[in-house]
Amino acid sequence: MTAPFNFGQLKFLKALTEALFHGAEMAITPDQVVANVCDLFEKVGGTKLDEIRLSLTATEIVLGPMFAEVDVETRVERIDDRLRDSSIDLFQDMGRLRGIIYACYYGHWQPGLEPGDQDANATNPVHRQIGFTLPKFRQRGSADMPLAPIRGREIDPAYVVDADSLEDEYDVIVVGSGAGGAVAAYNIAGWDYKVLIVEAGPFYPSHAITHHELDMIAKLYKHGAVQTTTNRDFVVFQGRCVGGSSTINNGICLRVNEPGRTHPDAKDVLAKWASIGAPIDAAAFHDSYDAVKDMLGIARIEPRSGRHNGPHLINGWHAYADTSDNPMDKRAITDWFDKNFGPPNTPTACSYCGYCNSGCAYGRRMGVAQTYLPQACRDRGARILPDTKAQQILWQTAADGRREAEAVKLVLPDGSNRLVRARVGVVVAAGTIASSKLLDRSDIDGTGYQVSLNVASPVVALMPAGAGGDAWDEDQMSSYVDCGDFLLESHFQPPMSMASLMPGWFADHSQRMKNFSRVHSAGILFPADRRGQIVDGKLKFRLDVDDDLPMLRRAMATLTKVHFAAGALECYPALAKGQKVTPDMDVDAFFKTAIREQDDVTLSSSHPHGGNAINEDPQYGVVDPECRVHGTTNVVVTDASVFPSCIRVNAQWTTMAMAQYATGRSDPFR
Predict the structure, then answer these.
(1) How confident is the model at residue 89 (pLDDT cuts 50, 70, 90)?
(2) How far is CA 370 from CA 104, 123, 152, 155, 286, in A?
(3) What is the DSSP code (8-state) at residue 664?
(4) Which residue(s) pair with 392 in the sheet?
């Protein structure tokens, strides 16, 4: 395989690594960090590798001349002046390279006898430096769930087809195997159709997943988890594997406007949809939630799985709210998440290893790859074609003059094209971005508009020594606070991912990571409603200056105060400059000054939705209230791209409910 970077880029990466660790002790060499960067992007490849190469070249020019040749102190001064403290958008974007360098240091993995060998990493020098212990070597008591795998839930490889076994025609072709595609495929196969499920990513069952974060991130995520918006201000996390994002998400399951689980002042999502031309039968929709709940075993998590970071948020909120004079704070909802892990309170419950976002190596996640997909294949005859891109839907004219899908053009793993006939219909469920692109390439007008994001950003808190326990030894996300217009969610990550979101530069970042066992973390989540558009295949997204930025500042300030109410000594909000906040500061004034534009803070989303919205009027939506594409007879969209407005909570369960609503109540092709 060709090396991902040329000699000059490698030299620059090493010089940049040396500068970013200036004043800090390194447990591995800069050369090893560069080797890890190369390994990551060699696996990611594609257009994202091209973007990184261009970014490296541009950053070297900005930091030049002769950046790699000058002494490390001079390099640090240039990074300080031109990247960290810059107010120029392009230079701020280049500064985000620091996250990749830090991730590839703290994601260091020593090769062993087999992929993801934990024994070979029992003395991993980076883990030892920050006091982190891999799951295999953690001491668990009798009251703890053992870290043991569960067998028998996975898709039988016999049901996974390749180019040689792919047939020329099927009744229904489902594009996408994630939350929407899997539910739709299961239901449609139950209507006695022969179903082919096309997935762009690889087939990766639980027993093939390891705790080697860099390896899993590269293999299971779109663009190796560094997919960004066009302005590079938002990282958009999306799974790209059989099972989609349900394979690498946190399993959070929240209904829209659920009494007792949603703030009473929160906007009514389904009422909003009806007001803009997208009426949904509320009773039938909640029945759809229930059907998904039964299949996935969704239930309230066990508090032991979030024993450190989870109570930190809940207790901190109560202490904060007791002193607040905001009536909405008094009515806020605090609770543990419902999840599709385990199920909870059974022998197969989550073993809370803390690696949710790189896949469950223990088969305890009840994702669609452990439920809907294996049952669709085993019991209903569906088949899965991985590593294959759906390029275009081909049409013929129906008797009533509407367009009728007759085939899908596929791009196979070797790059060759193959036409597969769809005798009955096509389901599009590849996610907001990919579904919009496919429909656009298939000459459907109006796709990719009014995309919404649930925008997230973390605040890390340093606790007193010995307080709170090891937040890394538990479920990554366990508790939440619904504040009405935004949510607070407990949140922690293993070393690689935590390093990429931990703010700070140089020795400050290193010291914060050395306190890995003393920090707790949570994130904000707020709705940015219909701000985006898919342009040339990428998401263009910008927060509203008058509505979104004030909410962002207020949410970050609130979370920081909650940390302090829980006993934090200092807080590290995810700001580009890496500032810290202390209890003696005016927190609201600090964030008003620190966040002047969206570039000033690290923002991400795992929940893009919209783009192919439901609407009764084809002038304002791509699909009708039954999720059928306007002007077609037999193409249905069953993913989050059909949401007419932002749902403000984690989108997994609602996406599955929408697919159930569209395909489970009746045959969508009759």
Answers:
(1) low
(2) 31, 33, 9, 7, 23
(3) T
(4) 409
Q: Would you say the C-alpha torsion 413, 417, 423, 426 has a positive or negative sign?
A: positive
Q: Which residue has the tokens 């360098």?
A: 101
3-state DSSP assignment of residue 662:
helix
HEC letters along 563-582 = HHHCCCCEEEECECCCCCEC
What backbone phi and psi angles, to 5 degrees, belong to 556?
A: -65, -40
Q: Which two tokens stand for residue 100?
A: 């990749």
> 202-258, pLDDT tens digit by residue?
999 999 999 999 999 999 999 999 999 999 999 999 999 999 999 999 999 999 999
Q: CA-to-CA distance for 524 and 486, rounded, in angstroms?
A: 7
Q: What is the 3-state secondary structure (H, E, C) of 19-65?
A: HHCCCCCCCCCHHHHHHHHHHHHHHHCHHHHHHHHHHHHHHHHHHCC
Could you tell me the two tokens for 153?
A: 């839930």
Of 103, 105, 85, 104, nearest to 95 by C-alpha is: 85
Cα 663 from Cα 429, distance rounded (Å): 12
Asked if the model's pLDDT at residue 1 lies above 60, the reply is no
- Please, are residues 120 and 112 in contact by the beta-carbon 8 Å criterion? yes
Integer Rg of the chain from CA = 24
- Within 8 A by CB and 6+ apart from 495, the residues are 106, 107, 126, 127, 130, 132, 213, 472, 513, 516
Inter-CA distances, 503 with 36, 56, 78, 499, 658, Å: 21, 21, 19, 8, 37
Closest CA to 128 of 442, 667, 534, 517: 517
Which residue's entry shows tokens 């490390």? Answer: 72
Residue 147 pLDDT > 60: yes
What is the rounded distance in angstroms from the CA atom of residue 444 to the CA atom of residue 657? 25
Alpha helices (H) in 107-155, listed in sequence order: 125-130
CA angle 525, 530, 532 (to 5 degrees): 95
Distance from C-alpha of 645 to C-alpha of 613, rounded to nearest angstrom? 8
Distance, CA of 360 to CA of 341 (rounded, Å): 10
CB 216 within 8 A of CB 240: no
Report the C-alpha gap between 372 and 18 in whole angstroms. Answer: 48
pLDDT digit string (tens) for 320-373? Answer: 999 999 999 999 999 999 999 999 999 999 999 999 999 999 999 999 999 999
Asked if 616 contacts 624 with a C-beta cutoff of 8 angstroms, the reply is yes
Which spans in 484-525 are helix H?
495-501, 506-514
